[in-house]
């Protein structure tokens, strides 16, 4: 009879039902049954992720023949730092990217791993960083829209269809602004991951430059610790003058 520890190690490597596992299900030891229950849950989650992946690829294909570019942004809401946009054209075979999902649903480690896979497997991708100054000059909505268009224009191949996350864009190609697009479209999800990881890295660098604000922890969002830091130290070059409460502070 195998030890529970041995069974645990085997189950870690098992990705589908086998004769060994079918026989193991007859083992009445409570520890074994707990391990099997945990494995069943893990398999169910994996199968759901695969099903979600198939739906996202089918969604992108639903727009017909053509070169689809997914576009998304990161950083519209923070009080500091840029807004970052990305445009991605994926290959016909995207199975290597089956775990790509809305960046908000992923851990930081998963986003970094998937960002590398996207860079390796995407046919083309482009990233644009829209500065704080441009955000204040244009307003956040227009700055984001402009940045998305610039990301599309930087692609090495011109797409024939654009799918964006809820943002209508002034482009010559058909553009589909999809509500919650990063959860529905694989191309948009890939763009969301590239935008998010690029912006996170940017804010981590800012954290080194301005350690008093803790940008590496909150990415510029208006958290209690960030607001407290602003109260104690004032603002820096990366704070958005058009956003409250910074706008009122600057006006004093």
Any overview of this molecule?
The protein has 252 residues and is α/β, with parallel strands linked by helices. It has 2 domains: 4-61; 64-205, 2-Layer Sandwich (Nucleotidyltransferase, domain 5). The chain is 52% helix and 12% strand. The protein has helices spanning 4-13, 19-24, 30-61, 108-121, 132-138, 140-153, 181-184, 186-209, 215-218, 224-233, 246-251; strands spanning 68-74, 83-89, 124-130, 161-165, 175-178. The model has no long low-confidence stretch (mean pLDDT 95). InterPro entries: RNase_HII, RNase_HII/HIII, RNase_HII/HIII_dom, RNaseH-like_sf, RNaseH_sf. Its cofactor is Mg(2+); Mn(2+). It holds the Pfam family RNase_HII.
Question: What secondary-structure arrangement, pairings included, does this model have?
Answer:
Layout: H1 4-13, H2 19-24, H3 30-61, E1 68-74, E2 83-89, H4 108-121, E3 124-130, H5 132-138, H6 140-153, E4 161-165, E5 175-178, H7 181-184, H8 186-209, H9 215-218, H10 224-233, H11 246-251
Parallel strand pairs: 1-4, 4-5
Antiparallel strand pairs: 1-2, 2-3
CATH class value of the largest domain: Alpha Beta
Return residue spans where pLDDT drops below 50 for at least 5 consecutive residues. Answer: none
What does the average pLDDT come to? 95
Please estimate the helix content: 40-55%
* SS strand fraction: 5-15%
Q: How many helix segments? A: 11
**Which descriptor suits the 3D outline?**
flat
Give the CATH architecture of the largest domain: 2-Layer Sandwich
Please report the total strand number as a whole number. Answer: 5
Rg from C-alpha positions? 22 Å
Report the span from N to C terminus.
76 Å
Oligomer: single chain
Succession of helices and strands: HHHEEHEHHEEHHHHH
- What is the CATH T-level topology of the largest domain? Nucleotidyltransferase, domain 5
Give me the CATH superfamily of the largest domain: Ribonuclease H-like superfamily/Ribonuclease H
Task: Trace the largest sheet across and list its strands.
Answer: 3-2-1-4-5
* Domain count: 2
Structural class: alpha/beta
Biggest sheet details: 5 strands, mixed
